Amino acid sequence: MTTLLLVFAAVLLLAVLLSSLAHRTILSTAVLFLAAGFVIGDGVTGLVPLRPDDPVVATLAELALFAVLFTDGMRVGWADLRSAWRLPGRALGWGLPLTLAITALLAHYVAGLPWPEALLIGAILAPTDPVFAAALVGNDRVPPRLRHLLNVESGVNDGLALPFVVVFLAIAAGSDDLHVTELGLELALGIAIGIVVPWAALRLERTRLFAVSAQYEALNAVAIGLLVLALGKATHGNLFLAAFAAGITVATCGERQRESFEHFGELIAEILKLAALLVFGALISPALLGDIGWNGWVFAVLALVAARPIAIWISFLRSGLGTREQAAAMWFGPKGFASVVYGLLVLNAAIPASDEIFHLVAVTIAVSILAHSSTDIVVARWFDDEREVPAWYGTARKVHRRIHRTDRRTPGDDAGDQPVKP
User: Where is this region: Disordered (predicted)?
Assistant: First the structure.
């Protein structure tokens, strides 16, 4: 454990020192942690000989996924979804289940998995991660609706895919009807905890008896998250649905708390994500890669270049999305952190095909991290030429400038759209 902490601290410092270069080039901090984990793992140097059943693996995966789903939920309050739901709604309502189904077909017919396990791996690989498309999402020259689409989709689909993962995992484990009923109660209890606890906490804060100082404002959401986590564990409610529901509730009912927690919460989630990637890399060994077989590698490639592109192409038919924007959305479906943790959950579940599923998931995620994190800068440059920006984007910018000028008028200025000079 001490060696693992030492390696993580050293790699984290290196990632911080290289972060500015990573934002400008194809270098990725995620790849750095994945590669470092692979090197220190039992299959290479044996510096940190982690096994899937080690307590640190399950604990870190649980905490990291809880933090990520909590912060993801905070990005997508109901007001955000209502204000611009059309394109993200297509990606989530059609794209997510279609990606799951196409990936399951590939897992069954290419990798040779039985249907329950094929559907499970489809659910594991359906979510996307915005981290590996950071250059695209953060580029101001990229049309805002495309950036919004990728942000909302990746923020919501982790939580939406989770029930499918849980249900298909139960089916693959051979659960009977009684267990499925208990599973439904577990999911419902998790959602209830995620809604009631933040709502009650935010209501208490608005009473005359309580007031949060500015110094502790960011800790308000942390306290809510920890209480949700503790209650979920005590009542055996689903922790991850509780986290996602809690994040959405805070974003919907407490805009001030959401804003104060945003930066702090993202840093916590990022640290846990990078630690999980390090552990995930340590579980990948040369022997594991050698056991995949040609059909496993073919599945991994097709899961990236066929499943997501076909699903998004079907989902955005007659949507009005430009060809270049649609091509970027089709390609940028990187398999990221949620899939890593779902794969670890399957490995710890010890179902008959858990090792094979983990091997396929591990290879697909590794290939995705390498491919997507090294092409985001390249694709973002497609939009650097303003002549290539769709006409609607220029109109939108003019409207934005007009609104901005209107907001800057002096109270007595009613001379149309003339801006006030600074």
Answer: 403-422
pLDDT in tens, 196-225: 999 999 999 888 888 888 788 888 889 999
Residue 371 within a domain = yes
Structure tokens at 354: 């858990």
Nearest partner of 265 among 216, 205, 211, 225, judged by Cα = 225
- Per-residue model confidence (pLDDT) at position 402: 44
Indicate if the pLDDT at residue 422 is higher than 50: no
Res 276 pLDDT > 70: yes
What CATH number is attached to the domain comprising 72?
A: 1.20.1530.20
Contact assessment for residue 382 and residue 328, using Cβ atoms and an 8 Å cutoff: yes
User: In the predicted model, is pLDDT for residue 25 greater than 70?
Assistant: no
Query: DSSP character for 416?
Result: T
pLDDT tens-digit series, residues 279-302 = 888 888 887 777 888 999 999 999
Given a cut of 50, whether residue 45 has pLDDT beyond it is: yes
257 and 221 Cβ atoms separated by less than 8 Å: yes
Cα–Cα distances in angstroms (integers) from residue 249 to residues 85, 219, 231, 378, 416, in the given order: 18, 16, 16, 37, 41
Coil vs helix vs strand at 233: helix
pTM for the predicted model, two decimal places: 0.77
CA distance 97 to 122: 9
Query: What's the rounded Cα separation, in Å, for the pair 400 and 410?
Result: 18
Is residue 139 within 8 A of residue 380, CB to CB? The reply is yes
Instruction: Tokens for 415, please give them.
Output: 């001379």
- Cα 365–90–106 angle (5° rounding)? 40
Q: Is 250 exposed, middle or buried (0-12, 13-18, 19+ CB in 10 A)?
A: buried
Give the pLDDT confidence score for residue 112 in this predicted structure: 93
Within 10 Å of residue 386's Cβ, how many Cβ atoms?
9
409 in any annotated domain? no
How many domains does one find in the chain? 1
Instruction: Give, as one character, the DSSP assignment of residue 420.
Output: P
Q: Using CA atoms, how far apart are residues 277 and 295, in angstroms rounded to an integer?
A: 25
Q: Give the CA distances from residue 94 to residues 67, 129, 154, 157, 310, in Å, rounded to whole numbers and listed in that order.
A: 27, 18, 14, 12, 11
- Report the distance separating Cα 220 and Cα 150, nearest Å: 28
Has residue 395 been placed in a domain? no
User: Is 420 among the domain residues?
Assistant: no
